[in-house]
Each structure stands twice: as C-alpha cells, then as structure tokens.
C-alpha cells in the first residue's frame, strides 16, 4: 500500500517523501541563488507557488531568507 511505501521510504531516508522532495527543491533553489537568478524566477523554476512560499520554506530550513543568502555570497 502507499502507506507501507511511505513508511519504508522514511525508514530508508529519514524523511517522509514530501519532506525529502522539499529538501531537493530547496537545494536546487540554493544552487540557482548562487548563480544570481532572481528569487521570483527561482520560485517558479523549483515548483513553489510564489516567491513568498519559497522564502517561508527557505527560512524554515536554513534560518535565513533567500535574499540574505544571495547577499552573503
């Protein structure tokens, strides 16, 4: 069942499938921020609803906003 698959996935990777996919999207957003892309375009390219959605998830994961991250580079 899908529930069994989700449990096996969590056991193997330490995160449920949704959280794992979110981490992959955030890693791609970090990579794109390092290239100088605008945050709004990165949000669209990585599947976030809008820039504020990216900012909320980015800050929750890394403790800083995408703009702060880009300026720090």
Q: Can you walk me through this structure?
A:
- It is a single chain.
- This protein is mainly alpha-helical and 73 residues long.
- It has five helices and no strands.
- The protein has helices at residues 2-13, 17-34, 39-45, 51-62, 66-72.
- It is elongated, with a radius of gyration of 14 Å.
- The model has no long low-confidence stretch (mean pLDDT 96).
Residue share in helix: over 70%
Characterize the overall form. Answer: elongated
Major β-sheet profile: none
Quaternary state of this entry equals single chain
Strand content: under 5%
How many beta-strand elements? Answer: 0
The string of secondary-structure elements, in order, is: HHHHH
Mean pLDDT: 96
Q: Please state the structural category.
A: mainly alpha
The helix count comes to 5
Residue windows where pLDDT falls under 50 for at least 5 positions: none
Q: Roughly how many Å apart are the termini? A: 45 Å
Q: What would you report as the Rg, rounded to the nearest angstrom?
A: 14 Å
């Amino acid at each position: 069942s899908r529930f069994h698959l989700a449990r096996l996935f969590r056991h193997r990777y330490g995160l449920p499938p949704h959280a794992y996919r979110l981490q992959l999207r955030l890693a791609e957003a970090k990579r794109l921020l390092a290239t100088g892309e605008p945050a709004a375009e990165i949000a669209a390219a990585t599947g976030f609803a809008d820039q504020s959605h990216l900012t909320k998830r980015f800050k929750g994961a890394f403790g800083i906003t995408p703009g702060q991250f880009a300026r720090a580079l």
